[in-house]
From TrEMBL:
InterPro entries: CbiX-like, Sirohydro_Cobaltochel/CbiX. Keywords: Lyase, Metal-binding. The keyword Zinc does not apply. This is Sirohydrochlorin chelatase. PANTHER family: SIROHYDROCHLORIN FERROCHELATASE, CHLOROPLASTIC.
């Protein structure tokens, strides 16, 4: 029997855990696989090994792991594989197939555009976008955010898209805000490239509050959240992993 194990980043913030759980409930309604469980990389329970245990306890013989992560960095490259290896030792006969983070995908660009379009002010030739990534010491993170920014600029025809990060990489959030504040653009659309609410969103809100007296009009967009479009990406991954099994 097949199961899906969704792996969220995890947070100490109850609202963030609740958002992940609600999203998985929507996935369950859209995906016809009998066993579907949620677990977390860190900061919340159940952990990944426990998530696998729960799938097996319900009769799973094959577990498809879906990382609910935006980009491929340390969690996707190291933490999740290590946890799955531990789970495999506990359940030697279990087949485990692991998907990938959402990554640089056209659907992710569309989600950003959806969040920007929620603002009362539309993008125009006096607008710029500041895309804020979480940040990671993994060099792929900066490369991927830069690729998303380039595609966003192409798709919106906005004059300028800049990037900054909340941790580990430069430019920092402060540097990104300072650069935008010194620009000649009238409207600055600030887009947190984050999947869930929490401390990082509060940090962005606090920094922007100090800029309300600047010449620019600042528009803080919602974080990406567990957007309905993500279910389509998950369905595509499931289809690909199922085809891989058939071709094995």
């Amino acid at each position: 029997m097949e199961a899906i194990l969704y792996v969220s980043h995890g947070s100490r913030i109850a609202a963030a855990r609740y958002e992940a759980a609600r999203f998985v409930e929507r996935c369950k309604a859209a995906i016809d696989i009998p066993i579907q469980e949620l677990c977390f990389v860190e900061l919340a329970e159940p952990d990944i090994v426990t998530g696998v245990d729960r799938c097996v306890a319900q009769g799973a013989t094959r577990v498809i792991v879906i990382p609910l992560l935006l980009l491929s960095a340390g969690h996707a490259k190291h933490d999740i594989p290590a946890a799955l290896e531990r789970a495999k030792r506990r359940h030697p006969s279990l087949e485990i197939a692991c998907g990938t983070p959402f990554g640089v995908h056209e659907t992710m660009i569309d989600i950003i555009i959806d969040r920007i379009s929620e603002q009362a002010t539309p993008l125009d030739d006096q607008s710029m976008i500041l895309l804020i990534g979480r940040g990671s010491s993994d060099p792929d993170t900066k490369r991927d955010i830069a690729a998303i920014a380039r595609r966003l600029k192409e798709k919106t025809n906005v004059p300028h898209v800049d990037i900054c990060f909340l941790a580990a990489i430069r430019p920092t959030l402060d540097e990104g805000l300072k650069q935008a504040n010194a620009s000649t653009y009238r409207h600055v659309f600030v887009v947190p490239y984050l999947l869930f609410t929490g401390v990082l969103m509060k940090t962005i809100e606090r920094k922007l509050e100090a800029l309300r007296v600047s010449p620019q009009q600042w528009h803080l967009c919602s974080y990406l959240g567990y957007h309905p479009r993500l279910i389509t990406l998950i369905q595509q991954q499931l289809s690909s992993l199922s085809l891989a099994k058939k071709g094995a």
